[in-house]
Design goal:
Elements (H helix, E strand, L loop, with lengths): L1 E5 L2 E5 L3 H4 L5 H4 L11 E4 L11 E5 L2 E5 L29 E4 L10 H5 L1 H4 L3 H22 L5 H15 L5 H11 L8 H10 L3 E6 L3 H11 L7 E4 L10 H11 L6 E5 L2 H10 L2 E5 L15 E3 L5 H4 L2
Parallel strand pairs: 6-7, 6-9, 7-8, 9-10, 10-11
Antiparallel strand pairs: 1-2, 1-3, 4-5
Length: 313
């Protein structure tokens, strides 16, 4: 069986009658687009296994495409289990707790600027993007420098930079936006997903860069207090993610081995780093980011938290 990769994607090309017995499911017979690459290549299967082909892989646009023609992909569309990255989501077994990142995973970091449109105007998205980017940069820089401050102060510093950069410096606007950040909107599937996991006998926790004050406010606003067994802040270890001490905090407080914890984050760098630490990891890739180029690859990729109960066994 031959697979040809063109500018438009990858498609199946049977080479002989014998190989034709190795049929892909109908939804993989179609052309599957993979944007963002500028080369062509093909892949030939050499082990037909009596009409039962093995895993096929191909490097497409900086991403490995991996799939098993014997798998049933028919029910994957609703939860985006078959991602642009080509990651196939298998069941993750042996899990006793699901630990969630907070900002960008449970809570929408853009919602503060969006709800402040009345004062910000049409620059709200630009402000949200710059604020978030600088916020993350400051966590990494301060961790490297060994100069820790809590996330509330750091978030204010990042906002000051963003407001100054966009010529929006205004003390009233700053105070308004910081207040909104304490009450970020939760994504709509958060409560339902946590409840489903809890009903399945799993512990649920938050592991976040956020300060205890910030996390308490966001959790109360989302009304998910009763769905969480632990709320863990990096303030306990005085360093930000992705330092291993942060991930170790979750294992220690939950009394579990790293491999018994499924960590969930929408931040690629966080998901990959948590996997390198030893957690089983689901990357909630809400914004369809490209795969990171750091160790190691998460176990599964989804675009909404609602897909987690189907993966965690």
């Amino acid at each position: 069986m031959r697979f040809e990769v063109t500018e438009k994607g990858i498609t199946r090309r049977p080479q002989s009658n014998a190989v034709k017995n190795c049929e892909l499911p109908n939804h993989l017979n179609r052309l599957v687009p993979f944007p963002g690459y500028a080369h062509s290549q093909s892949l030939t299967d050499t082990d037909h296994c009596n009409g039962r082909p093995q895993w096929y892989s191909s490097f497409v646009g900086g991403t490995y495409l991996l799939f098993n023609p014997n798998s049933d992909f028919r029910n994957m569309g609703s939860n985006d289990a078959f991602q642009k990255s080509g990651m196939i989501n298998q069941k993750i077994t042996g899990i006793r707790a699901c630990v969630f990142d907070a900002y960008g995973t449970l809570f929408d970091v853009n919602s503060a600027a969006q709800r402040g449109q009345g004062m910000v105007g049409d620059k709200w998205q630009e402000l949200a993007d710059l604020w978030r980017a600088k916020q993350l940069q400051y966590t990494w820089l301060r961790s490297l420098a060994g100069d820790h401050i809590d996330f509330w102060q750091l978030t204010g510093d990042a906002l000051d930079f963003a407001l100054d950069s966009l010529k929006l410096v205004d003390s009233r606007l700053r105070a308004h936006l910081m207040g909104l950040y304490l009450n970020l909107s939760a994504y709509p599937e958060v409560g339902r997903t946590l409840a489903n996991l809890k009903s399945g006998g799993l512990k649920c926790a938050i592991l976040s860069n956020g300060s205890p004050k910030m996390l308490a406010a966001a959790i109360k606003s989302a009304s998910i207090q009763n769905l969480l067994d632990e709320v863990l802040s990096v303030e306990e270890v005085q360093v930000y993610k992705p330092h291993p001490a942060v991930y170790q905090l979750a294992a220690d407080r939950l009394g579990l081995k790293a491999g018994e914890i499924c960590f969930v984050s929408s931040n690629g760098w966080d998901a990959y780093s948590a996997k390198a630490f030893g957690f089983r990891v689901i990357w909630c890739n809400r914004s369809r980011q490209a795969p990171e180029r750091i160790p190691e690859t998460p176990d599964a990729e989804i675009s909404s938290l609602s897909g987690i109960p189907e993966i965690v066994a």
